Write the structure tokens for this entry.
Amino acid sequence: QKEVEQDPGPLSVPEGAIVSLNCTYSNSAFQYFMWYRQYSRKGPELLMYTYSSGNKEDGRFTAQVDKSSKYISLFIRDSQPSDSATYLCAIPQPPNFNKFYFGSGTKLNVKP
Amino acid sequence: GAVVSQHPSRVICKSGTSVKIECRSLDFQATTMFWYRQFPKQSLMLMATSNEGSKATYEQGVEKDKFLINHASLTLSTLTVTSAHPEDSSFYICSADPGSKEYEQYFGPGTRLTVT
């Protein structure tokens, strides 16, 4: 079993839709949960991170962690064509948290 | 914000030659840098961890004699792909850890390597 599994997509939605991106993970010892956005042929950029369980909101983006089911989600409200990119979940490995397990990425296309 | 650069952004080389890729942290010092490889439509796979002034630590299955890593200063790490073959064609991405927070890492824009 992979440490992090992510819905591969691709996901195509109309502009303004609510987008849900999801990952599952295997190790209950994981503590930080990151979401990166990667545009084509570019490096990943950090969108949001959460620590432990719960929700975190930043503008149109909400990150959610459910540690009981080992499930993490990223929600995008009022999606825009500029949100079209690949979204990667990433989990820093304990104990140093500087090596990351990455999900396979979900490619999102927001149609105008 | 913290910026990591990579050079070159794109390189084409002939089979059997060696290619060097540079990763620089522009506005911070990074005691640790990481090298990832990303094949088309796949996620990032960690190749090695590079620590300034010491030997790199390679992930299982990564040939250390083929992928030479040098971390000569707190702002520069280099990856040299030796005797490159077409199967080494990939997108190589580095990241740098400023060491201020446990999970904090900044990624470079990547280098597209094509071996013909």
User: Anything to note?
Assistant: Chain B touches chain A through 24 residues (CB under 8 Å). DSSP finds no helices and eleven strands in chain B. Chain B has a mean pLDDT of 92.
